[in-house]
Design brief:
By secondary structure, the protein is an alpha/beta fold. It has helices at about 5-10, 20-30, 50-60, 80-95, 120-130, 145-155, 170-175, 190-195, 210-220, 220-225; strands spanning about 15, 35, 65-70, 100-105, 140, 160, 180-185, 200-205. The strands form two sheets. A six-stranded parallel beta sheet has the order 5-4-3-6-7-8, with helices on both faces.
Amino acid sequence: PPYATAHTTGEAVVAASDIEAAELRRFYAAPASKIRVIPCGVDPEVFYPVRQADARRALGRDQCERVVLFVGRIEQIKGIDVLLRAIGLLFQGYPDLRSDLCMLIVGGALNDDEDAPETDKILELRRLVHEHRLEDTVDFVGSQDQSRLALFYASADICAVPSLTESFGLVALEAMACGTPVLGTRVGGLQTVIEDQVSGYLVPAGDEQALAEGMARLLLDHGLRTRL
């Protein structure tokens, strides 16, 4: 990995968070004197609050009463399978939500190719969708350019970031810049981006029950979502 030699050849080693800096020291013996923490940022001229109804109208999502959004690569470490199982648990506990909830998955697979068949991971996720009878709830919308991505953030009631590991968590920051509450996992840089129960909610990684409970709490409490 590049981290392994960076501290011996360069002027500095850049980490996106204090947590990542600690991991560089622990796993790669990077000298503390060379580590510089520079958090990732977003462009406020692209990611900013937009009226939710206007964003949904622009995306043609007027039929959605509530929107849960996932943004990220379609890969195992992003925890999308955990999120789909959590949606299934959510509907078990709150069956009335099934008729008015849309789950939008924005993103593509690693090394995706427009002419290539769907990856095994996407096929696995589609099987989960079928298993939990979520065909009318879940929509894979593919990758989006930044201006349109901002509309997806603005249209959502919750942006879910169920990552199993995360060096920073740029998606959470983009969602927050658009004024959208974030439900993330207590891993890596997400713990520094999201202040639990102040600017969002953090739950244990890989815990679909905790994720379902977090979604229920946010979806059913408009005042809480507004505050976050």
